[in-house]
Amino acid sequence: MKTKILILLAVFAVLVTSCNKPVYKYYELTEVDKQMIPYELEQTVSFIDSEGLPFILTVTQDTTYYLIDRQMDNLYYAISERVVRLQSESLRITLAVEANYSNNKYNTIRVFISIGIESVTSLRYDISYDKNGEFSGTIHNSIEINGKVYYDVVEKNGNGIQLFYNKTYGILQINRDGENFITINE
């Protein structure tokens, strides 16, 4: 009798574990998603600070990986995400820009701004765009920044920060408390 019970338990265990084999659905970045972040590894981007002094941000990271999201017992979504990090050693500024695939109407670029080492200010701004790469929110068809006209610029505001971004140049300007903090210097 014990043998029959052990065999039945073993068969049951095999059936249960074979039925719960994880299923992964992969979502890759589209070409539009890839084009929303214009930076490449080791690229340098010139900016000017609030006093008009030039400084360089260097792209120190350009990584694409999968985020695993468990939806149900055996269904997992593997969502592709690209992270680009721009960093300045002298001014202790780090900007991280992320693009990730979304199954929703809008995908998102996230811009993280970290300032300083000891008193870290870290803020996140989500910039939504549709499957065609068109931004949603406050859009400027054209805007002059640092003496140059830029087109299709999205503006994000919050926490005393005003961010201007477009898919050709990336971060164009960041204002803090109504004052220029950094501006692209082409």
Would you write up a description of this structure?
With 186 residues, the protein is mostly beta strands. Helix content is 12%, strand content 57%. The protein has one domain (22-184). A hairpin with a 3-residue loop joins strand 10 (161-166) and strand 11 (170-176). The longest helix has 18 residues, at 2-19. It is globular and about 60 Å long.
Mean pLDDT over the residues: 82
Helix amount, in percent?
10-25%
How many helix segments? 2
> Low-confidence segments, ≥5 residues, pLDDT <50?
none
Shape: globular
Could you spell the SSE succession in H and E letters? HEHEEEEEEEEEEE
SSE blueprint and pairings:
Layout: H1 2-19, E1 23-27, H2 31-35, E2 44-49, E3 54-70, E4 75-88, E5 93-100, E6 107-115, E7 121-129, E8 138-145, E9 148-158, E10 161-166, E11 170-176, E12 179-184
Parallel strand pairs: 1-4
Antiparallel strand pairs: 2-3, 2-12, 3-4, 4-5, 5-6, 6-7, 8-9, 9-10, 10-11, 11-12
Give a quick summary of the entry.
With 186 residues, the protein is mainly beta. It has helices at residues 2-19, 31-35; strands spanning 23-27, 44-49, 54-70, 75-88, 93-100, 107-115, 121-129, 138-145, 148-158, 161-166, 170-176, 179-184. Strands 1, 2, 3, 4, 5, 6, 7, 8, 9, 10, 11 and 12 form a twelve-stranded mixed beta sheet that branches.
